[in-house]
TrEMBL record:
Belongs to the bacterial sugar transferase family. Keywords: Membrane, Transferase, Transmembrane, Transmembrane helix. Residues 265-448 form the Bacterial sugar transferase domain. It comes from the Bacteria. It is a multi-pass membrane protein. It comes from Paraburkholderia steynii. The chain crosses the membrane at residues 32-53, 65-87, 99-121, 271-291. InterPro entries: Bact_transf (IPR003362), EPS_sugar_tfrase (IPR017475), Undecaprenyl-P_gluc_Ptfrase (IPR017473). This is Undecaprenyl-phosphate glucose phosphotransferase. Its main location: membrane. GO terms for cellular component: membrane. GO terms for molecular function: phosphotransferase activity, for other substituted phosphate groups. It is found in: Membrane.
Length: 456
């Protein structure tokens, strides 16, 4: 997360210092020659080559403020020395040398301030907007008075324990005014009452941890289950599996953490959806008229679906069935020759044109262009106990098209095996997602067309 911000900050510091020093030295703009302009352009490029060579942009969690400042200053001065040497053969170098001297000095101060600000940013973000995450702790034989102190020292107070579950205790108690329970039922009640989404398992290093009961209890609640592997310093940092907000953790069951990697996807979703809605506006208008004339009822059909982390939203589709075709509280998948589908609806469903209003859901941030297809809430309740890892599909935003759909799994899922295959493709997408994979799926969706053998 911090590396792109750091690069942008360094560029602003260096370019800002160049402009300020130019204003100080070249008071008469006519004395600033095209040679000076080329030197300035080279001066903006050289530092980032030297920064790369000196590994200025290594992960911040592995770096100290002092080490970061020393490296960036060394790389900056090294780049300026090269720039000074390269500019010497050209005439009228007095003003240019004064400019480079001022530029170097101002940038030194700016880069120091920038580095300190970047290193302080995580703490500021946590205190301003991203308040410490509320967590539940599972500590078999570990709910001792020093437990919270060890966690606080290791996590830099980025997380706040709300409840501790220790099944080895004979009765409930408290540690530093935090309730400690010894029964799973009580732990489950507190988790849900306080809407906690994080469980940390604290265990002595290298001892087996049983998580089956936690899996079973919270498998449909979108709770992240993690293991904190290092508390007493006896395990090396290299043995951890992942890093979550700067803290080494073993992710047992957790939402994928991609941070700023998803920013291009979020931007693309909005721009692409807006372009589609504008470009297809005549088609949308024509479909709206056709749906209205086909049968009584609304033009747009709304249905509850689950989004990221199980949050329920209303999905938009052009109405393709007669009004009142579905029984309240249950949703029956459309089948071939389904009498509930109107003549216009049959065309819309076979070509997927009924899905076009979902680009409004994308603009609202409820869906993505590419992702696992959301199912009706009633279908989720039915399949979650039949298909393994079914609910994990909702760890990310659902999509209009997806990896399962371009591989032939769209439309009706008449057999459990078909839903299992769809879930496998969705899980593969979640585990291997990249922005370019999204582009590939969009292209395949266009090339293969929007029709399918089971789209009716």
């Amino acid at each position: 997360m911090l590396t792109p911000i750091s690069k942008a900050t360094d560029f602003l510091c260096i370019s800002g210092a160049a402009y300020i020093s130019k204003s100080i030295v070249f008071r008469d703009s006519s004395t600033f020659t095209h040679i000076d302009g080329l030197v300035g352009l080279l001066g903006l490029m050289l530092p980032f080559l030297s920064f790369r060579l000196t590994k200025v942009y290594q992960p911040f969690r592995n770096d100290s403020v002092l080490g970061s400042v020393i490296r960036v200053q060394f790389a900056w001065i090294f780049a300026q020395l090269i720039l000074v040497a390269a500019s010497q053969p050209y005439p009228d170098g007095d003003l240019r040398n004064r400019w480079l001297l001022w530029w170097t000095a101002i940038a030194v101060c700016a880069l120091v301030a920038g580095r300190c600000a970047i290193h302080a940013l995580p703490s500021m973000l946590r205190s301003w907007r991203f308040a410490p995450t509320r967590i539940a702790i599972v500590a078999p034989r570990g709910a001792k008075p020093d437990l919270l102190a060890r966690i606080a020292s290791q996590t830099r107070n980025a997380f706040v324990p709300e409840v501790i579950f220790d099944p080895s205790l004979p009765s409930d108690t408290s540690v530093d005014q935090i309730p400690v329970v010894h029964e799973m039922h009580a732990f489950e009640q507190i988790m849900r009452a306080q809407n906690l989404r994080e469980i940390w398992i604290i265990n002595p290093p290298f001892q087996p941890i049983s998580v089956e009961h936690l899996f079973e209890t919270f498998r449909d609640d979108f709770v992240n289950i993690r293991v904190l592997p290092v508390l007493d310093g006896c395990t090396s940092a290299e043995s951890v599996v992942g890093i979550y907000r700067g803290v080494p953790l073993l992710n047992v069951m957790a939402t994928p953490e991609r941070g700023w990697d998803t920013l291009p996807k979020e931007i693309f979703d909005r721009i692409f959806s807006l372009c589609v809605l504008v470009a297809f506006s005549p088609v949308l208008l024509a479909i709206s008229v056709a749906v209205k004339l086909s049968s009584p009822g609304p033009i747009v059909f709304r249905q509850y679906r689950k989004g990221v982390n199980g949050d329920v939203f209303s999905i938009y589709k052009f109405r393709t069935m007669y009004q009142g075709a579905d029984t309240p509280g249950s949703v029956l998948q459309a089948r071939k020759g389904d009498a509930r589908v109107t003549k216009v609806g049959r065309i819309l469903r076979s070509t997927s044109l009924d899905e076009l209003p979902q680009f409004l859901n994308v603009l609202k941030g409820e869906m993505s262009v590419v992702g696992p297809r959301p199912h009706a809430v009633e279908h989720d309740e039915y399949y979650k106990d039949l298909v393994q890892h079914y609910m994990f599909r909702y760890r990310i935003k659902p999509g209009i098209t997806g990896w399962a759909q371009v591989n032939g799994y769209r439309g009706e899922t008449a057999a459990i095996e078909m839903m299992e295959a769809r879930v496998r493709f969705d899980l593969y997408y979640i585990q291997h997602w990249t922005f370019w994979m999204d582009m590939k799926i969009i292209v395949l969706t266009i090339l293969k067309g929007f029709v399918g053998a089971r789209a009716y």
